[in-house]
Specification:
Elements: H1 4-11, E1 15-19, H2 28-38, E2 42-46, E3 52-53, E4 56-57, E5 71-74, H3 81-91, E6 95-98, H4 105-113, E7 117-120, H5 124-131
Parallel strand pairs: 1-2, 1-5, 5-6, 6-7
Antiparallel strand pairs: 3-4
Protein name: CoA-binding domain-containing protein
Pfam families: CoA_binding_2
Length: about 130
């Protein structure tokens, strides 16, 4: 978990499902996702209470997505992570990124034991910026 090579490989992804993406611009899920969009990533919002956000159709769950995203990026509290891991296992999704400040080590261990690669308690936007040449 959180190995530099793993972070680099996830940053090479093209499509990101964002669980918990908010339509409020002041929320980290919104501005981090907007930043990733601006840097060429395709965002798939996963939030059952929204129709669209950041110009993209929002989906109720990972199972409802029209594609298999390269990375699942999570902006939900730690108690939601086990169910997200379950859904990822069912769908065969390989990469889980759990945003900074969100930690569920048991779910991460189960995910990794089942073949899911995990980055946890790291910000996708911060890591993307860090990886850019100066």
């Amino acid at each position: 978990m959180n190995e530099p090579e793993l972070i680099r490989s996830m940053l090479a992804a093209k499509s990101i499902a964002v669980i918990g993406l908010s339509d409020r611009p002041d929320r980290p899920s919104h501005y981090v996702s907007a930043y990733m969009q601006q840097h060429g990533y395709t965002i798939y919002p996963v939030n059952p209470s929204l129709d669209t956000v950041l110009g993209e159709k929002s989906y109720a769950s990972l199972s409802d997505l029209p594609i298999k995203p390269d990375v699942v990026n999570v902006f939900r509290t730690p108690n939601f992570i086990p169910a997200i891991v379950d859904e990822m296992l069912t769908l065969g999704l390989p990469n889980l990124w759990v945003q900074q400040g969100i930690v569920n080590l048991e779910a991460a261990a189960r995910a990794e034991a089942s073949g899911i690669r995990v980055v946890m308690d790291r910000c996708l936007m911060v890591e993307h910026r860090r990886a850019q040449p100066s």
